[in-house]
Amino acid sequence: MDKKIAEMAKEAASQAYVPYSHFPVGAAIVSQESKVFLGCNIENASFGLSNCAERTALFKAVSEGIHDFSAIYIYGETESPISPCGACRQVLSEFCDDEMPVYLLSKNLEVKATTILELLPYHFTKKDVETND
Predict the structure, then answer these.
(1) Sorting pLDDT into bands at 50, 70 and 90, what band is 132?
(2) Active site residues
(3) Who is most buried in 13, 35, 51, 62, counting CB within 10 A?
(4) CATH of the domain at 40
């Protein structure tokens, strides 16, 4: 785990727009070329239109042509390391290798290291779609 990138994820949380939940989350996803993309959660009065920090960071990277990643750091203002929601787990599995490191962080930067596959062992993949032609 890279402490500097963990700090970047924490800083990203300070940009969160959370007028409803008051629960800021930050994320930093790292490309294979070591470029870091930051994201925060962004809420909306129509809750279904909100976006999580993990997807914000990933979508920023993909919108710039990056599709290969080496790690993601997810920070929450929580006592224990935060875990991504199911939607984020599925979206991350679209772009990240099963064994890619995922670093879950608490407000004190306590870390729990895991992988994409450990977070979502039975994810729906591109292969599933391709075999249904």
Answers:
(1) low
(2) 54
(3) 13
(4) 3.40.140.10
